[in-house]
Amino acid sequence: xxxxxxxxxxxxxxxxxxxxxxxxxxxxxxxxxxxxxxxxxxxxxxxxxxxxxxxxxxxxxxxxxxxxxxxxxxxxxxxxxxxxxxxxxxx
Amino acid sequence: xxxxxxxxxxxxxxxxxxxxxxxxxxxxxxxxxxxxxxxxxxxxxxxxxxxxxxxxxxxxxxxxxxxxxxxxxxxxxxxxxxxxxxxxxxxxxxxxxxxxxxxxxxxxxx
Amino acid sequence: xxxxxxxxxxxxxxxxxxxxxxxxxxxxxxxxxxxxxxxxxxxxxxxxxxxxxxxxxxxxxxxxxxxxxxxxxxxxxxxxxxxxxxxxxxxxxxxxxxxxxxxxxxxxxxxxxxxxxxxxxxxxxxxxxxxxxxxxxxxxxxxxxxxxxxxxxxxxxxxxxxxxxxxxxxxxxxxxxxxxxxxxxxxxxxxxxxxxxxxxxxxxxxxxxxxxxxxxxxxxxxxxxxxxxxxx
Lengths: 91, 110, 232
Prior knowledge:
The structure holds three protein chains of three kinds.
Chain A: H1 2-23, H2 27-47, H3 51-81, H4 83-90
Helix pairs in contact in A: 1-2, 2-3
Chain B: H1 3-24, H2 28-54, H3 58-89
Chain C: H1 4-30, H2 37-44, H3 53-61, H4 63-83, H5 99-122, H6 130-146, H7 158-180, H8 193-218
Helix pairs in contact in C: 3-4, 4-7, 4-8, 5-6, 6-8, 7-8
């Protein structure tokens, strides 16, 4: 009984974090929520008795993807102020 | 309903959310997020459906394991391409999707 | 440019597709599977040379898939590196002078490398293996890069290229060797199976780590001018 409840909660949390990651106004926030989604996915894999995938998901889905995307966001933020510079360089 | 089936159905819902995001969102990084979501959903469906009757099944698990690594590589390549695009054009949205003035659902900050 | 109406139509279409997918999943779950795959796997596990079923599937029973997957990774890495216009893939901007962070790294990096090694070794009989270990290596590299530790081996040169293809090359070599010896492609000779799997996995770990790291490092496009822009 408790396990079914846990599964239902986990499924609900997955859907909510997924929706929140896509709907969030702030891109930084969206990616942080997406990292949370990756961690929840790792828990899901444990529930599905797939510890191998859980390990990979925790390292990749939550860790590497998050760092990669956050790095890109900070790049865009930094680039924003120099948009005109980029334009000038091209011209 | 068994646990794997529950996750497979959750995967179907996530797939839908991801697809809508992929179509509806404009910022390229957000599209990439949506694409990742679709990938995760597909993995859930794959493993969930396979394990519904048989219990833990290493074959789809191994497939998903390689799938996860491929998907991070694809994401990383996508980020590289988006950055390149941003560097060349100064935009983070596709050319055909630059919002018109006055149309402002879901602000695209970031 | 898409109108709001077209947008809503697309979203509706996506909704319908999702409903269809959900229904298909439900219907498929009603079907009895034609074969009992986990059982077959369990029966043949002793012949695979490793005790952990997932590793057995990855590197023995379905090694063809894994081989192609590595090929995809190598191609992705090549594409990523070719996008980077930097001579050195280090970012001087990232150099940190935070002593606390450096001191922490001194502890963390060896620990993470140790963990990667453990994961690789554990793959033989419990959850773990080349992919997780490779991801761990890549994570270590990313951490080192973000704190500005020098990563000399990532200069786009011969070392980087060899590192990228090492895993794929050995895998392919083993496959070809078995084919030339008269067996099926990628059939390991029975007496060496464990050693072969372990060595392939070790090199795969290295390659996966380097591929992911190279893709991560390739991302920052520096503001160097584009001499060949007009030619494209």
